[in-house]
Amino acid sequence: MPTAYRRILLKLSGEALMGEQAFGIDPAVTTRIAKDVLEIQELGVQTAVVIGGGNLFRGLAASAKGMDRATADYMGMLATVINALALQDALEHIGVTTRVMSAIEMRAVAEPFIRRRAIRHLEKGRVVVFAAGTGNPYFTTDTAAALRAMEIKADVIMKATKVDGIYTADPMIDPQATKFDAISYLKVLEQGLKVMDATAISLCMDNKLPIVVFNLRTAGNLRRVVAGETVGTTVTA
Fold first, then answer.
1. Rg of the chain over CA atoms, in angstroms?
2. Phi, psi at residue 221, to the nearest 5°?
3. Is residue 2 part of a domain?
4. In this structure, is residue 158 part of a structural domain?
5. Number of domains in the chain
6. Are the beta carbons of 144 and 13 closer than 8 angstroms?
7. How far is CA 207 from CA 139, 156, 189, 202, 233, in A?
8. What does 130-196 look like in DSSP terms, one character per residue?
């Protein structure tokens, strides 16, 4: 089956792993995500993942309550490593060879991020999970996703969310919100649409890297996006 993309970067929020829980990691959800990834691996698509940590710790929220911002951000980065290991475990349970690469060195649990090595893993058909964001405070995991996608020369960033694309307003709150099938980077920035933060969007805009925002909770959506079907919202120039 022909695919629209050869190499993708999947951006998962930490909240995606919670399922219906208020906190933590739901093993049933990590298994479901792993099966979605297996489906596209079987199509020959090279897959990298950047994962957030919001289900365990939110650096921004902690700094708003008085914690030092840099310290809070580092704690958030460590939370992403926990999530990356949970996802690696789920993937390997169903037979997908996976490598976790961390921007903060912790050799006992993850490889250090080395760009050329990451590309080599992808070429060998392994899923690479990038943990610990960019390794720097003040940068979100969205920005990490844009950066890593550029470094590994991904064809697209696939941003998995709870809604089926980008809307004029939050569809959970505003029933009048309408969905965009396609939108430009500039419009996203001008209208302050909460897709990814401005740094990530600007990075993608400067390097002409398309973003597809889609609903991860709909089974088979990842495969449909990869096949080039019109799913969610595409952000391009």
1. 17
2. -65, -40
3. no
4. yes
5. 1
6. no
7. 18, 11, 16, 9, 19
8. EESTTSSTT--HHHHHHHHHHHTT-SEEEEEESSSSEESS-TTT-TT--EESEEEHHHHHHTT-SSS
CATH code, domain with 172: 3.40.1160.10
CA pair distance 130, 49, nearest whole angstrom: 6
**Does residue 18 belong to any structural domain of this protein?**
yes
End-to-end CA distance of the chain: 28
Tell me what pLDDT residue 123 has.
Answer: 98
Structure tokens at 70: 């840099």
Structure tokens at 151: 């470094």
- Please indicate, yes or no, if residue 1 is contained in any of the structural domains: no
Query: pTM for the whole thing?
Result: 0.95
The rounded average pLDDT for each run of 10 residues, N- to C-terminus, in the chain (237 residues) is: 89 94 95 97 97 93 93 97 98 98 97 98 98 97 98 97 89 89 94 91 96 93 93 93
CA distance 77 to 58: 9
**Which domain covers residue 16, as residue numbers?**
7-236
